User: What shape does this take?
Amino acid sequence: MSGNRLGFDPYEMLTSDRIGPWGLGWSLNIMGFNGWQHDGRMPGSAAMLVRLDNGLEMAVTEYSERDFFHELGYVLHHIGNNYDWWNDDRDLFQHLCDKTC
Assistant: This one.
């Protein structure tokens, strides 16, 4: 039997009150959206990857403080959850590839 200073055996399943909404570092189905999110920060910069259950995927990088970053994430999640106006399967950037590829 192995233990640690927290008083539980890491080789046994944790009880439901000790399990957070995490899966391999991804936030799962929390903060008012249905999907996965992972973010990372360094001093002066931040990045976020999001995959919503409706199939929309977003990657955001910014160079500012953390408070603005979370506000931006909140706005993007709500836009992504209400993207009926963008509900098609065509490549929105094909015209760029036609000119440069």
Observations:
- Residues 26-100 form one domain.
- The chain has one domain: 26-100.
